[in-house]
Structure formats: C-alpha cells, structure tokens
Amino acid sequence: MNIGKENEFTEFKKSTGEAQDAMKSVSSILNKHGHGEIYFGVLNDGTVVGQQVSDTSLRDISRFVRESIEPAISPIVREESFDGKNVIHLVFSGSQKPYSSKGVYYIRVSDEDLILKQNELFRIMREMSYSDDWENRITDKTLDDVDDDVLKRFFDCAKSCGRLTVDAYNKEALLSSLGLAFDGKINNACFSLFGKDAGIPLKLANFATNEKLTFLDLKEFHGNIYTLVDVAIEYIMSHIDWEVEIGNRTRREIPEIPEKAIREIVVNAFAHARYSDRSTEHEINIHPGKIVIYNPGPFPDNLTPNDYIATDKASLKRNPLILDILFRSKDVEKEGSGFKRADRLLREKKLKWSFTKDSYGFYFVFIRADKATVTNGTSVVTNQELSDTDSRILGLLSEDSRLTVKELSESIGKSSRTVLRSLKTLTEKGYIERIGKTKGYWKIK
Fold first, then answer.
1. Cα–Cα nearest to 235, from 210, 213, 268, 202
2. Is 375 a residue whose pLDDT tops 70?
3. Which of 245, 275, 349, 439 has minimal Cβ neighbours within 10 Å of its Cβ?
4. Tally of CB atoms within 10 A around 437
5. Full domain range(s) for residue 420
6. Strands 10-13 and 35-40
7. Are residues 16 and 125 in the same domain?
8. What's this model's pTM, rounded to 2 decimal places?
C-alpha cells in the first residue's frame, strides 16, 4: 500500500532505527510550518513496509523527541495499521520557534531538512517577536466547517494564475497540501480564510466630512478573509469617483485611485492583521478628502511603509500561511512589495498617501482629489469638501429625509435662507435629490 509522497509537512522513515535522523525533520518542519507528522515503517516513496511496534518502541520515540527537540514539545505517538502492516505515527506541533535538534536548527524545503543559516535564524527570531503563531494552532473545527464555494473559488483562481500544482479539486487533499488541515482538523488560518462562520468583523462607512462624525452610510459584515477582501474592495470602488473618457466609438471609466493600489493595501491589511484578538475590527472609512484603511495589527516597531518602499527589505510576516494563500490567488503579487507597488501606482496618478500607527494597529490613508474638472471628451466628477452647515444638514436628512426647511433651521440654529442655500449646494454637488414637491422628501444620493 502507498500512502502518498513526502512533503513539507510529512516525512517517512523505514524504521525507528532512523529515529535520530527523524528529529532533524521535526525541527525543520516546526520551524517552517509549526506542525507536521512522521511515519516509521514507510519508505521514502510512500510504500508501507511496516515494522515491529511495542510499548517500548513507542516510548523510545517519545524519549528521542524529549531529549532532542528544544524548546520542548508534547507530541502524539501512536500505532497505526495499513493493510495489516503496523507503523508508528508521530504527530507534533509547536508555537515557540525556532526549534533545534541536538542544538542544530533546521528548515524544511520541499521534502528536505536543511541547516538554517545564521541570517535565516535571525529572521525567524524577528518574526516570532512580531507574530504569536496563532494561525498554525489546530482548532476543534473540521473540514465540514470550510465553505466549499469559497474554497473552490480560490482553487480556480490559483490554478488559473499558475500558483497551485494540485491537479483536481479535493477539499481534504488541497487543504492538507497547503498546511491548513491536519488529521481531519483545520487550523486557525484555514478557518479565518475559508470558514463558514469565521466571524471576522469588517466595518464600512461613508462620512459627510473628513471627520468621523456624520456618516452617510454604515455597514457591518462578519465573514472569512477571502470573502471580506472582495467586499472591502467593492465598497471602496463603489464610493470613489470615476473619470469617463469618451472616444470616437469607445467609453472608458477610470477610477480616481487605481484599483490595484487599493487592492494591495486592503489585502495587506487582511494579511497582517492580528486575528488572535477579535476585539478590534477592520475598518474602511470613506471621506470627501481621503480613504482610510485600518488594519487591527500593530506595524513592526521602528518601521514604516517607506522602509519597504525605499529598499528591498524582507517583509515581516505576522501570518505567513494566510499571506501564502492570498499570494497563490494573486491577491498579493510578491512578498514585501505591496507598499512599493501601491506607491508607484499612486505616483503615476500624482496622488498622495499618508500613514499613522498606534499600539493596536495602523492606518493607511489615500489622499483624494478635491476639485471637479471638465475637459474635452472627459468628464470628471469628484467629491468636494462640505462646510460645517452643509454637513450638519446632510446628517439630519440622513436620519429623517422629510424634515422641512423650518425644522432644519431650528435644528441647526441658522436662518431659513442659509438652509435653502445649503440645500441648493448639496443638490448641485450630487449629495441629495428632491423627490416630490410640497409633501416630498430628500433622497440621499
């Protein structure tokens, strides 16, 4: 019987006589993925040959792990049988990288265990100070908790862009090969990416001014990362301005901010968020003069996006598994290049951006154009800054669209003439539209 091929998560050994060599694989797999398995009694090509299994041999494997691997882990060692041939199955996991075997550190590359170079060891140590390895932890969720439609959409996309080598769609085989499922259970990364009830929060808001005071629209979603990325991008694209170029026989619509730049920043936010703390949510805030994307995950200390733009600095990955999945479906073009690509796209459009961070996360801000223009063959309609009076009236109408001029005047303490002037301004700028006359109402556009 053949049980498959060795890969980055699975190692085969002919017998427990190779136990000491197997400890290198434990170290290398833990340092790469945080969990894995080794079968004793299986050839390198996956052919089960079996071996003698006793309580002593099971204890010997546990002893080898205890004496060899540092920091200490608590593996599962059990006897299994394939077509009447007994094997020893070692299942292990750990979240305190880096791990060594007899004082030597290894890293898994395909089905090989390579000695970690010093710079790679330092990189892992830096990443561990940035990440808590939450995504690798196995949950109590099973394959049934994965949304098949979302996973199939990922599979089709990854296959079409050549970043997935699995031939045919099979949920268990696909998730196992990606390091998202193990022994019938899925890890946090898998559930967050594709879970039916992942529950990751996303708040979307459109505000009347550049302050978070009066909102014109507010939506809240809870779902998985793969779905929420699209929801966030679609919301932004539907609330920004579009330039319409009309040629002899063609019509082309161009967004004020390049969609690729928006996608880079949105995906970056979802890839590097701190999901172990569900008290904070992703936010997309649309303002007349800016678009703010909030990532609930602290930015690396002493670094800013400019450090990644100015150099080829390697990206610190809070969630390497989640980042890998988004890369495979081409949501991420290249590790560590998101800010650089977004900056280049914005510079080409002569647009600016800013960035702030706090103890809980960071804000990326797209600066919007604030002037409407009309040119030959091209019409550009852009949001414009509203006065305080306009914003207050717009906010009141958002709550009650049937307010009269007199009622608005009394509410804001301004004359009826000022209210009428403001209503005219809001109408001309496209924020409101009068429906009906005497008994009509104001439609918020």
1. 202
2. no
3. 439
4. 6
5. 388-444
6. parallel
7. yes
8. 0.61
